[in-house]
Amino acid sequence: MPTDPSLLARIGAVLRGARTLSPTRFTAPRIWRPTPGSFAALIAGLWLFGTGEGLLLAANLGAAPWSVLAQGVSIRTGISIGWTTLFISTCVLLLWIPLRQRPGLGTIMNILVIALALGITYSALASKGPPQSLFLQFVMVFGGIAIIGIGSGFYLTSGHGPGPRDGWMTGLHRVTGWPVGVVRLCIEVVVLGFGWLLGGTVGIGTLLFAVLIGQAVAMGLALMHRLFGVESPSPEHHSILGSEELPADHVPSVDDHDLGD
Fold first, then answer.
1. Total structural domains within the chain
2. Coil, helix or strand for 33?
């Protein structure tokens, strides 16, 4: 049975990923003015991101730097990883004050929803014991990264502003004049180091996340464009999302709004 060439072309476009934040049918007109569609996309995207992070942690092969830090703090304090994630995100948000960054609806929901989803997912999987095989561990790592990519596509195109970590990053970039990639690298290395010293798991999963998350998010954005893209975006959408190409030295994450996060 012949394959539809147009279908193959659409699949190829998604696999190549997007280089811009394209407005969708659900993108909000303002970061503090949600529509039913933008709010649903925001919550769904953040929940998927937290679920993906929970999978990475439960795989026990190492996770993203901020999750490694949350895991380390959890180990040292005995507090659940959902609560430590919430605490760390809140502390980072306070670092916006001297930088005069302004939060959006996505900033606040990022703190709440990701912590809740991560805590529920990790607790549910950890209660069943460690994965029984290395193969299953890698399935959880790759599945977690893929879910984070899709969640990022929803969240980033909802138009409700950056999350606390990337708002801090872009604020430091603005104040110091350092390239975004350099600022992000410094933050991630320091966070990962502290997390490891506190007992968080660093391993092949951490490396795979660093290598694959950029493309996973780009594919998530391309999927949103294919499924929900608009042909004639409004000026408000451009002002919310921006229309610049993604920097080559920038590795996006779910709370990364200034991608053009």
1. 1
2. strand
